[in-house]
Amino acid sequence: MSYIIDEFDVVVxxxxxxxxxxxxxxxxxxxxxxxxxxxxxxxxxMPCNPSIGGSSKGHIVKEIDALGGEMGKNxxxxxxxxxxxNTAKGPxxxxxxxxxxxxxxxxxxxxxxxKTPNLQIRQYEIVDLLIENGAIKGVKTNGNTIYECKxxxxxxxxxxxxxxxxxxxxxxxxxxxxMAATKLSQCLKDLGIRLYRFKTGTPARMNKNSIDFSKMQxxxxxxxxxxxxxxxxxxxxxxxxxxxxxxxxxxxxHNIIKQxxxxxxxxxxxxEGTGPRYCPSIEDKVVRFADKQRHQLFIEPEGENTxxxxxxxxxxxxxxxxxxxxxxxxxxxxxCQITRNAYAIEYDCIDATQLKISLEFKxxxxxxxxxxxxxxxxxxxxxxxxxxxxxxxxxxxxxxxxLILKRSDAYIGVLIDDLVTKGTKEPYRMMTSRAEYRLxxxxxxxxxxxxxxxxxxxxxxxxxxxxxxxxxxxIANEIKRVSSIIVAPSKQVxxxxxxxxxxxxxxxxxxxxxxxxxELDYEKxxxxxxQRPELPFEIKQQVNIQIKYEGYIxxxxxxxxxxxxxxxxxxxxxxDYTTIKGLRIEAQQKLNDIRPISIGHASRITGVSPADIxxxxxxxxQNKRQKTESV
Amino acid sequence: xxxxxxxxxxxAISTGGTGGIGIVRISGENSISIVDxxxxxxxxxxxxxxxxxxxxxxxxxxxxxxxxxxxVLVTVMKAPNTYxxxxxxEINCHGGMIVLQKILELVLNNGARLAEPGEFTKRSFxxxxxxxxxxxxxxxxxxxxxxxxxxxAVNQLGGRLHQKVTKMRSKLLDMIxxxxxxxxxxxxxxxxDTYTExxxxxxxxISEMEQLLKNADKGKIIREGIQTVIIGKPNVGKSSLLNWxxxxxxxxxxxxxxxxxxxxxxxxxxxxxxxxxxDTAGIRQTGDIVxxxxxxxxxxxxxxxxxxxxxxxxxxxxxxxxxxxxSFIKNKKTIILLNKSDLEQKITPESLKQYIQNTAxxxxxxxxxxxxxxxxKELKKLFFDGEVITADxxxxxxxxxxxxxxxxxxxxQRALTTITTHMPEDFISMDLQQANAALGEITGxxxxxxxxxxxxxxxxxxx
Lengths: 631, 463
Hints:
By secondary structure, chain A is an alpha+beta fold. Helices cover about 35% and strands about 20% of the residues of chain A. In chain A, strands 12, 13, 14, 15, 16, 17, 18, 19 and 20 form a nine-stranded antiparallel beta sheet that branches.
């Protein structure tokens, strides 16, 4: 017999990257919160790659931090190597990535959860959701206890009906042999929620002592480190960094794979789930890119207090004997000892178009969903959704409007808009090319974009907010100062220009104009600027970017202005689109299904044409006038 | 991603209704300044200084070439007392359709956007100018016009321009995908274009675009002129009719031979009306089986056509084949020409009534050049009464494409500068993506997932 044992404001189901952020946000916003995990030792587990960040994902972590989330701080505490990628490309695509000590990452996060006021963590599997009058009322554990609550955030990751496969070995379990959640899928189905089956995979882990690194190229971290959290300075987190290694597959590796393809459940048809193009198995790579002679492999440590290494680039679901054989063809891995086999994992996730843009289910009040359950892939994507879902669960309880980040506000906005508007047929990975306003959504300005919001939400302290305001003021002052300086065509100036292969000037030129030249920048011109004040790096960087790329930035801001106008035309929640004459049937159905919040949102739905948008605009105007007439 | 815009400046041809006189209408905040860039008034007063609701006389000048395009009257009407409650400028010109088209093109190249079907009316409604009771009519207008243009877009697929642009887009997508793949997977060994290679590719593409634009100016890519098909039995005079079109004054726009061996396509311009004429004359055959194929072919051309010119030999009685043709063209806009009026008449307009109604039937002798001036009149009537749909969407479609191509070229030129000044790849990609989006307007492709699709088709990526 089940019985009610406790009562909470917010229940978070799952303790992965989404769950942690959701629970922390809710508790920090003052809600009595509980987080359930199948095993408390799996809190914030990184079941695949041992790194956080990277292209566009690094942006997301910075945004999470700017809003007052935890991921950035936690990786700053536990990184063992860090690198800013893409520095030769434009400032919009600079990407921060850090290798993590996995165990420490987990224990630090768990400890943070434990120390957070208003937050409890409980080891339980949640087997049922209690709904009353279309609203969530509580959850039931596998211990038959009921926790009543006002809102629930589902962050079940890859655990729903999970099974792991390699060769003909199928284990009904979640990642790392953790228990799968077997009951919740059926419960969701009973609530009328559409589920998909997705697939992903991970490579083998090996003992470091069995690897010959002399045959590989070392990969170093950066000397000048950049923290993920805006609260940290490089000095705060400076420490000794470990090495990663680069090696390659070869023809022999590919032959072994080709000869044994029929033994991979991916090709024998055992796996039904849809896998991501973003991280294909080595089988997929060899088949789809048959003419490629070799594939890169990065050998990365799983932590400092372990000898286990992660073989990035070679996830697989081939049987153990084939795995051993193929890995041992690789330079440096000839004698490798596998500690954990590579495997594929299948799991249930939801069709995310059933969610509102706040991540609440459209048909169940107070029930939110975040992370891989929504069809995304990646720790960072999960954490971002968790944070937003956690915030919006609180907003729901407080009966306040949801926090919605627009595509022009943040990568997080792009991520959620894509997921709930278009849905996804394969695990969704964030990419910089998905963000149409990426020049404005840089990792370096995430604090300027989002920290004021975090402050309003109560997730950012007064102190941190004041620091931001001061920083913004300093940036503005310095830009103003630099723009007013005229550089005369003196000998010293010409010599400096020549040094950087820049054409000489004939009349006085604004210093800001010189900064705009591709071969020059703010730093290089410092000798011409005797009055220049002593400024911290992040301010100098902002000044340089904002002056140097002013033209491009203005151009995107103009596009954003247009975009905002359409986003600001709100659509009422309760329209029955089938009654709107003039909309094509496909558009009526799609609109009724997705229930967009604005005209701009509607225009992004596949199957809604510009003509349908015109009809909607007219319909709304019509309604507005009818209302004013009847008043 | 499609961004719907509400307050930019839009332009379109609003045909006057008679002869060659037509109006280019521009509405929106910048309409006056845009036209001012093209317009040279007789008394050298800028349009910006004009009072509202005044008329100015002068010339439209192509600023690139300095050529005078037309002698015009320009009406300036300032917000809010206008149809759309926005600034409206109307350019009244009298140079025929080609000139109207050219002026519209200049207006678009100077910052206006081609109006969507029904958009002036839509703005008028949204800005509170027209009555609530008219809302439904506005919706109907938008949907019906959109259906038509969608239909005509389908017909246009497979055209030469479409093929060329598709190829160009594919090259562009490859360039973008290379850059984006490296950005998103910085540590993968991806073969990447060097700046020199990118410069070369961009230069090539610009010159291809320029070539296309040059042709567009001569009207060579007017694929969307009224799609007209001449059909009829063998030896009824189809080729002679086509030759008549080509020989008369009628500015031959191109002599491009048909894409298939058994038809000839010609572009002609009859007093400002652009037409693309398909002569099925090539469907010539002996023997019953091939005869059948001939009819089937005519049928398929007729289905795609906006206008059918059916030639019947009036000196012979109707044969089964004629009747079959008459039955499948019943619902199409058709002009029937009873040819060989110089011979003894076996078929009269009256005798055709049982097969087809509401169709203009003219007695002509193509050989003796008799009655053909009537055909010209009939064509003009159809065109300006708006009975032939293409009069609106087709011609405008052409301007739309030219303008999209122009914008693509501009974006490519920006990309080239970005490349040659060695700006980071990220910025090159931004320019290339704009070019790609502009070309996508011609082919009707959306950019949404295609870059990502291309990245993963081209490169082997992922952990």
